[in-house]
Amino acid sequence: MTNSPQRVKVDLQFTLSESTGDGNCYLPETELIAEAVKIFAVDTGLVIECLAELVAEEGVVREEIPTDDDEAPTVAIYLRRRPKRTPSAREPWAPSAAKSSTDS
């Protein structure tokens, strides 16, 4: 298996995507890193570096979630939701681009 940073980033996003299919909204950072190292057989340091790059590139979100007790906050990692794209009038499949019966 390749240890290319781009491949590791894709693997991290895939792991997060799969976890949402299991009903999770996020994965704790430590769990995501451990799963990526185990599943994709890559170095922990590389996973941490790639995760930091994904956060900087806004491919994923890193957020601290406070706890009720004196424990350190949970660091949550989740996929960034992409805004819903609406078709433009120049796209032939856009409803507004369809010819009406009076346009002859």
List keywords for this structure.
alpha+beta; Arc Repressor Mutant, subunit A; globular; 3 helices; three-stranded antiparallel sheet; 104 residues
Task: Report what the structure shows.
- A hairpin with an 8-residue loop joins strand 2 (60-65) and strand 3 (74-79).
- It is built from 3 helices and 3 strands.
- The chain has a 3-stranded antiparallel β-sheet.
- It has helices spanning 5-21, 29-40, 44-56, and strands at residues 27-28, 60-65, 74-79.
- The termini are far apart.
- The protein has one domain (5-79): Arc Repressor Mutant, subunit A (Orthogonal Bundle), CATH 1.10.10.2220.
- It is of the alpha+beta class and 104 residues long.
- It is globular and about 45 Å long.
Model regions low in confidence, pLDDT < 50 over at least 5 residues: none
Main beta-sheet annotation = 3 strands, antiparallel
> What's the shape?
globular
Q: What would CATH call the architecture? A: Orthogonal Bundle
Strand content: 5-15%
By secondary-structure content and strand pairing, the structural class works out as: alpha+beta
Report, as a whole number of angstroms, the end-to-end distance.
59 Å
Number of domains: 1
Using the coordinates shown, work out and report the CATH topology.
Arc Repressor Mutant, subunit A
Round the Cα radius of gyration to an integer and report it. Answer: 20 Å
Q: Going across the major beta sheet, what is the strand order?
A: 1-3-2
What's the total helix number?
3
Number of DSSP strands? 3
Order of helices and strands: HEHHEE
Name the average pLDDT. Answer: 82
- Report the top-level CATH class: Mainly Alpha
Helical content band: 40-55%
